[in-house]
Amino acid sequence: MTAIDLSSRPEFERSPEDFSNQDPVERPLPLWERAWNSTALRRTVLLVLLALAWEAYARLLANPLLLPSLTETLEAMVRDLESGLLVRRTLTSLNVLVLGYAAGLAIAAVFTTLAVSSRIGTDLLATLTAMFNPLPAIALLPLALIWFGLGVPSLVFVIIHSVLWAVALNTHTGFRTVPETLRMAGRNVGLSGVRYVALLLIPAAFPAILAGLKIGWAFAWRTLIAAELVFGASAREGGLGWHIFEARAQLETATVFGGLLVVIVIGLTVESVIFRAIEARTVNRWGMQR
Q: How does the record classify its membrane topology (predicted)?
């Protein structure tokens, strides 16, 4: 082969081109396009359109007993808020929900710990989940009434059933899907015991854990409202479900819609504010989810 003599290559120097007279490649987006890129604005517009459609159809139907308008529903809500009735009913439901949800999470943590630490624990969780996860919580309500009587303990019992299996199953699945490479990296840097679980397993499995928390919350909220619709009153104070049931019995359809609207608003608030904030500060910041 003939060797190439690099020293014989001629030297040259090129002057930089002047791009100052050319139009800029980047251009600022118009105001409406920047605003439309906001998820909150798009969802707000959708909600406003739905509200306008509701108002228009109710006025066209002209039958408040069947479908009150949004204006009539808001008037009924304001009336119940001013009397304090709707606030008391909402606080009663939220109090029971927090009790049941917290107890469900605690029991799910125990089952998941057993499943992660031993093979018999894994078999126990898999068997119980297969048995009870498909069982609707409301189907356990008659049994809860026999065991705990009429009141908060029965509601807490069915909420625990709603939360427990969804959270435990998702958490255990999240732990099992942590890559072995990541586990070995954690052991190589000296993580073990509680630090291994807290600093490696939980962050790595957090997308699945968070999904379980959201599913458990949704199951718990709908189970609570359904259970309150069945018997509702705990002591002399019922929750939102009982509020809706009472209004239905008195043919106050606007109040029924007002109670349903409160249920929806609370669901949207928890989903869009609390869980969205947790996502933004954890899985989104860690680059695990877009």
A: Multi-pass membrane protein
Q: Distance between CA atoms of 126 and 196, rounded to whole angstroms? A: 24
With a CB cutoff of 8 Å and minimum separation 6, the contacts of 220 are: 97, 100, 101, 104, 159, 162, 163
CB 234 within 8 A of CB 146: no
CB 199 within 8 A of CB 156: no
CB of 208 closer than 8 Å to CB of 171: yes
Terminal C-alpha separation, the chain: 55
Q: Show the tokens assigned to 275.
A: 């869980």
Which residue is associated with the tokens 């199953």?
Answer: 169
Q: How far apart are CA 143 and CA 276, in angstroms?
A: 36
Would you call 234 helix, strand, or coil by DSSP? strand
pLDDT digits (tens, 9 = 90+) for 169-186: 999 999 888 888 988 888
Q: How many CA atoms lie within 13 A of 270 on its CB side?
A: 16
